[in-house]
Amino acid sequence: MHVHFLDPYRPRSSLIHKFDPSLKLVLTVGFILTCTLIPTGAWPIYILFFALVLSADVLSELGVGYVFKRSVLALPFVLAALPLILTVHGKTIFSLPIGPWVLSPSYPGLERFISIAIKSWLSMQTAILLAASTPFPDLLVAMRSAGVPRLLVSIFGLMWRYLFVLVDETMRLVRARAARSGKSDRPEAKTGRHLAWRARVTGGMAGNLLLRAFERSDRIYMAMVSRGYDGESRSLPLPAVRPAEWAALFASLSVLGILIFVAYSLWG
Amino acid sequence: MQPAPISMHIPDGFLSVQVSIFLWLIAILVIGYALKRVSADLGERQVPVMGVLAAAIFAGQMLNFAIAGGTSGHLVGAAIATILLGPWAAMLVLTCVISIQALLFQDGGLLVLGANIFNMAIVGVAVAYMVFRTVRRLTSGRSWSLFMGGFLAAWMSVEVSSLGTALELSVSGTSPANLAIPAMGGIHALIGIGEGLITLGALAFLSASRIDLLKANQAAQARGNLVWVAGLILALTLAIASPLASKHPDGLMSVAKQYGFLSNEQNPLYLLIPHYLFPGMENKTVATILAAILGTLIVFGVTFAVAYTRRHRPGAHEH
Predict the structure, then answer these.
(1) Which of B22, B52, B139, B184 would bridge B166 by S-S if both were Cys, CB 3.0 to 4.6 A apart?
(2) Do A159 and B66 touch (CB under 8 A)?
(3) C-alpha span between A46 and A51 (Å, rounded)
(4) Are the C-beta atoms of B30 and B91 separated by less than 8 Å?
């Protein structure tokens, strides 16, 4: 199964899991904002952030390995920043003539590239921690109390509820296609006909999936109405935020603020 | 597990804070307006339809087919959602898909979520709607009008969204414009064909089995003059601005600096703290080395301290 379609929540009883979901969301976004704001080449700050992320990994009882493994999945996007090594002007590392072009990577470019990769990796890890330590229904309540409109939160909730059902539907469609598709050992025997035909088959599957979704939503609506649905989805309120949690949030945010100040005064 | 497809989901750290916040503001305004329109136009019945359709579009990204050389086409869904639900509801559905991908599966960042919503849910849907409605008007009555509209809408929405993504990366100073824009545009011109063919196949299936689904929302399709105009403006702007920017990357940089989008040289925080070093440190190199040593000590200190306190709780890992 595609790793993307498994519920990322890992139940544990750690401090991070028990932390109030709304404050956790604020803290995660605050950390990512700080990461993005830190100037290029502020390596000690990156090291410090790495320490913070590692500590949070350990505190969450999820294990450093779990978080690392997931964070590698999104790294291919780093390729988008790779050309920076060649295009930022500055002291060059070496010059390599290839045909009409001369490849000359520069130190400032390399520094920019590595900084972007590290910042992105650190941000990713905090997002993984948030997803793995907070059940999605709690995040929905947090969003609602943070003022996200009711309609949007309802769609989020229904989407989440039926995501795994529809993933199963999709996998049945994919399995059916695989079961009806032959594969030859002989390399000269072409399988799967031409491109347009393959695309049409896949399109038919997509249409089939959408149709099943429509018909299922009809049944869901009937079931909801028969249970008294009036447009509002109700859930139990989360326990009140404890003073210690507020204190932890403000302490962490002020540390992040101080770090931004230090980073700009030394490397800005 | 399939390899990650080349995607338009920008991770955190790739856009400057100014660009991220600017696009968040636009996304909030547009989605807020879309919510108002959808609540006014549609009843509570649409809520499960939108939720389950969002789940289907997310799950449908597993459907792929081999193109060539290990690459594969897969569904993004802006066009098919627009055709099935009308533009405003489609924006909400795609916003939900993109937000869940970012929040739970780290496919795209959180600070840059506004930018991802802008590129895929707002630009993607507006362009798809503009193309689809224009083609339907021009070829009304022909049997192939639906299919041609669907294919072109899907291709254009993917292509224009990718140009927007490339432009944002360039304005943030992350990718050079003269490389990023042709590369993103070129790859997505091909990916768009895959998206278009899947959309075409899905429309063929739906029109053969449940033509009423495609006709039921004609009222919602008609109420989108604003989206049509927005789609036209976005498509034209991005189609004209990106080749210009890729030809004159320095021009783009100076515009970005002028409007304060490029953070590394002109930062408001930097102006607050002019060349300033901590007392007792005359030399920047010394300060850097000291800070590095201190930083490394802190890493080990903090991590070991946390790990140590954990070790004193046997049984914590047992459940």
Answers:
(1) B184
(2) no
(3) 9
(4) yes
